[in-house]
Amino acid sequence: MKLIIQIPCFNEEHTLPETLQDLPREIPGIDRVEWLIIDDGSTDRTVDVARAGGVDHVVRLTNNKGLAAGFQAGLDACLKLGADLIVNTDADNQYFGADIPKLLAPILEGRADMVIGDRETDQIEHFSPLKKVLQRWGSAVVRRVSNTDVPDTTSGFRAYNREAALQLQVVSKFTYTLESIIQAGKMVVAVDHVPIRTNPKTRESRLFPSTASYVRRNGVSIFRIYALYEPLRLFMMAAAVTALIGAVIWGRFLWFFLEGRGDGHIQSLIAGSTLFIVAVQFVALGIVGDILAGSRVLQQRVLERVRRVELHLGVEPSHYEPGARDTGQEPTTGAQAGPATGKAADRESALR
């Protein structure tokens, strides 16, 4: 059984050595443990530091694509490199590497396909009270949408077996943490969580430069994901609220009309009618969104099958470079890149 620990990186030359030192090379029940970094367009010595630290594989994106794109590129490469298990961790050494066996235990025991590390955020000292409240609220929304019981939905310390990794298709450009849990909850993927430890803070977050930014970005992400996966429920609630306000305004007009003073309150009749039309439009949008949600599920299943076909054909990982030592895997970056570039000769040989 092969485990690949993947680490998304963006200008992490200072924190990466400590992160690598914290990772295990041997785990009971695992035959091979390999490390992979996703260099998300770094402009410093991240790749050189990674190779010096013994990283086995490098996925090198040409420019900065964001955490979600880097995470997805890492999953794709891990699968094509033959990983049976994948662990994702952060390059800032936030998570305690010695907890990786604990993270893998539910998968090895056959109880889960995907495991999320629970940081128990209420006990993290450098989290502000507002951030802790948003963590609880956001996690509650994600649990409701995904039908899971994950307490820490923004944790990036997580493990996947091969089946779970094959089915995940993140479309968000900002973060993968919330959407991947919702996807897993709606697919044939068993999700579990385990308590984990965290290391002392090494630097400020680059995703969230301030608490206000954290609140704004996570709030927008949660709303967007809820609208993406539960459009009918969201728009029906909006329609109900709008129709209720319109009914109250209509009631006000009816009250004055019955008293014989309706001539001076015709504006209420117009406002109520307008709100009723808006409510009908919300219902229509909910129905259209629900149809699109069904189509998206079918598209995800098609993409999963395409990924399985690629693995069967032996398509090389994209943007790949060997790490500290020769892995026998040809690089797929630069002008002399291998089959992942889709050269005509490679396609013809694959078809034969």
Observed structural traits:
12% strand, 352 residues, alpha/beta, 8-stranded mixed β-sheet, 8 strands
Structural write-up:
With 352 residues, the protein is α/β, with parallel strands linked by helices. Helices cover 49% and strands 12% of the residues. It has an eight-stranded mixed β-sheet, with helices on both faces. β1, α1 and β2 form a beta-alpha-beta unit. α5 packs parallel to α7 (177-186), α5 packs parallel to α8 (211-229) and α9 runs antiparallel to α10 (266-313). It is elongated and about 90 Å long. It starts with a strand and ends with a helix. The mean pLDDT is 85.
| Backbone shape | elongated
Strand order of the largest sheet: 7-5-6-4-1-2-3-8
| Structural class determined from secondary elements | alpha/beta
Low-pLDDT segments: none
What is the rounded Rg? Answer: 25 Å
Helices, by number, come to 11
Report the count of strand segments: 8
Helix content: 40-55%
Largest sheet: 8 strands, mixed
Taken in chain order, the helices and strands follow as EHEHEHEHEHEHHEHHHEH
How confident is the prediction overall: mean pLDDT?
85
Which quaternary structure do these chains form?
A: single chain
β content, as a range? 5-15%
Straight-line distance between termini: 30 Å
